[in-house]
Amino acid sequence: MHGALLIAGTTSDAGKSVLVAGICRWLARQGVDVAPFKAQNMSNNSVVTTDGGEIGRAQALQAAACGLEPSVAFNPVLLKPESDRTSQVVVHGRVDGSVSALSYRERKPALLEIVTAGLARLRAEHDVVICEGAGSPAEINLRATDIANMGLARAGSLPTIVVGDIDRGGVLAHLFGTVAVLEPADQALVSGFVVNKFRGDPALLEPGLAQLERLTGRPTLGVVPFAPDLWIDAEDSLGHDGTVGRPGAPLGRDWLRVAVVRLPRVSNGTDVDALACEPGVSVRYVTAPSDLVGADLVVLPGSKATVSDLAWLRSTGLADAVLAHARAGRPLLGICGGYQMLARTIDDPHGVEAAPGHHEGLGLGAFDVVFDPDKHLGNPHGTALGEDVAGYEIHHGRELRDPGLPALVRTSDGAAEGLDIGNVLGTHWHGLLENDGFRRRVLARVASLSGRDVTISRTTSFAVTRTAQLDLLADLVEAHLDTAALIRLIEQGAPVGLRIVPPAGAP
């Protein structure tokens, strides 16, 4: 099998990332040499690759579905929002300035050359490449400079499937309208549809799908049911009600309740996914001081805008609630930007994240933070709470520690990192909670400090849980998609002579 395919969506969060992961996993289980590709991602959830760069976390998950290590080749352009109007640009894994929405347009022609060349290399190195679009191809105001949807499809002659989330409502209109607003050369590559997150009797949907095919000339290649056991999400696993994951019942009498502060520019919030794998551990994102009442563990996650998110924390009253929680001896964990907020001061002399200046932290640790112009990236190893651990670092802030400050982590070269003062823990390392032994020790400490009757599982494996989720995605693809049609599209490209759908109101 040789070829490529683009999965586009009617909207952001329609299911593109998980469908790509599922198709990749389904192909890999059949022995196909498959790789993922997303030309341009916009996300503050990222990982450090084995080749030392930075890519979207979704593409790292898709790589795992393929049985591959994450690589900058899978996501050549990453935009990391810094504010409502600006984003940091990461090209081939390295920071390459910041842009506004308007100034980014000027860079698109050069970036299109980068992503098309990258796709060509991947196609030469692997039998199959499954590409993921960005947002929606129906954003016709952006079409002239598009590098991730039909711009990429046209450049690479990629057959394209459009996926829509029926749980949002209006999916048939979304699917039809997506095709109808495209110019004829783009429509010629749109080869079919997938309906995602369907609940109920498929027979009730069938007349609508038949009418959609009559209107567009394109079949629906599958209806993927809503899967309650599927909680993994390639960007984040946050439910609509703020919950993370679907943990099993507690092994002891009590639940452990984890409150994760949903910062405006939260980064790598998926760090807490591993907690949600544990029986009896309830994880929720929160946005108000009252949400911290009764929490056994409060987590301050990473942030792409630490100083402004800290200001938001203060303006909402959450800073006072976090301080009261910690000063009462209750457990608090800060990760990356959330760890930096625990410092006495945060100094950004070069204006990396905000206007140059000196800012007061929460003052819970005897250390200060200074922002360096260059980003610190790494895949470090060490020990923490008596366990061997690995993680990854993505930050500009550098800690300046007072002598004798208790460290959470000892790196493999013996350096001190992070903070451990009993009920308050902090680290720059993402992914620490994915280390099973470390996570169990943290939860045992939380249970002890909170006085909960909790038995910590000795068998939960985050890696095994994630693998099972990827296999569940592949099972959904195999059971509910027309896989023979997928293979034809991959090998033969878009069918010739697909109907051109005129836009509404056209003569």
TrEMBL record:
Keywords: Cobalamin biosynthesis, Glutamine amidotransferase, Ligase
Chain ranges of the CobB/CobQ-like glutamine amidotransferase domain: 257-437
Biological-process GO terms, alphabetical: cobalamin biosynthetic process
Active site: 336, 430
Identification of the protein by name: Cobyric acid synthase
Pathway: Cofactor biosynthesis; adenosylcobalamin biosynthesis
CDD domains: CobQ_N, GATase1_CobQ
Gene Ontology molecular function terms on file: ABC-type vitamin B12 transporter activity; ligase activity
Residues covered by the CobQ/CobB/MinD/ParA nucleotide binding domain: 6-231
Highest taxon of source: Bacteria
UniProt cross-references to Pfam families, sorted A to Z: CbiA (PF01656), GATase_3 (PF07685)
Biological role stated in the UniProt entry: Catalyzes amidations at positions B, D, E, and G on adenosylcobyrinic A,C-diamide. NH(2) groups are provided by glutamine, and one molecule of ATP is hydrogenolyzed for each amidation.
Family to which the UniProt record says this protein belongs: Belongs to the CobB/CobQ family. CobQ subfamily.
Matching InterPro entries: Class_I_gatase-like, CobQ/CobB/MinD/ParA_Nub-bd_dom, CobQ_GATase1, CobQ_N, CobQ_synth, GATase_3, P-loop_NTPase
